[in-house]
Predict the 3D structure of the following.
Amino acid sequence: MVDPRRASAAPSPLANEQAGALLASSRWDLSGKLSAGPAWTAGFFAALATGPEELDADQVLADVLDERRFDDLADADRARADLLSLYALISGTLELEPQSVVPAEGHDIAEFCRGYVRGAHWHQGWVVGGAAAALGGFESAADPGSGPDGLRHRARVGHYVAALYEHFRSDRGQG
């Protein structure tokens, strides 16, 4: 299995808009070719990099990249490489500053949380292992109709990301 968390990109802090900027500045046009937007994709990759199991990149990327939308396989392969670079960037950033992968404010936080919940469900050890209850805050933050409870959770998403990253550190073999 290939674990994108171990890709060779150097970790650097992820600014609030960096995921979107990386996708937008790609040499290949990914607009209309991703299954979701940059905030959802960043949340999805953050949860994948946080969880306890190594995951196969080919299976994981199928949730984000719709290869049928590309004219040829070479373009799809370049897009996959860009997404793996983004995954490596997010993974490295989680190690340095886990809260910095979370969008600063607004609608993007809800999208980030929806992606995070989806990514968490790729990890059987997360869903079955008792940490699934921690996803409740993400689910509430992702629900625009959740009122004051959702606002409270949206304000704490960075804390949730950092706490869960630390929770699974030993499962990932990092400490």
Notes: The two ends are 22 Å apart (CA to CA). Confidence is low (pLDDT under 50) at residues 1-13. The domain at 4-167 is CATH 1.20.120 (Four Helix Bundle (Hemerythrin (Met), subunit A)).
